[in-house]
Known about the structure:
By secondary structure, the protein is α+β, with helices and mostly antiparallel strands. It has three helices and four strands, in the order αβββαβα. It has a single domain, classed as Ribosomal Protein S5, domain 2 (2-Layer Sandwich), CATH 3.30.230.10. Helices cover 39% and strands 22% of the residues. Strand 3, helix 2 and strand 4 form a beta-alpha-beta unit.
Amino acid sequence: MRTIKSKMDFERVFTQGRRYNHPLMRMVICDSLSEGDPGRVAFAAPKRLGCAVVRNRSKRVLRETARHQGFPAAGREIILFATRGTACARPEELSGALKSLCKRAGLDG
């Protein structure tokens, strides 16, 4: 899974991307700069969620859910943000939430 690593790319996706919200996660999606790019994804958990243990667990469950769904989508750059319910949600709930976000965004996820 290719990830967004540079701050510049992260900020570009965050400012230019389209936002989709669900109680268990948020998604920001933007088209890739180059044509035919395989796509990249980033996982974020804001400090307001809690201590580092909670934030890291939230990112881990988001990463596993995205891997299970076959992320990242080709030609897209996606940021998945954890919410308060992410860390304690069951995998089936997170999978359903990601499918719902993908459907609203027009992805084949």
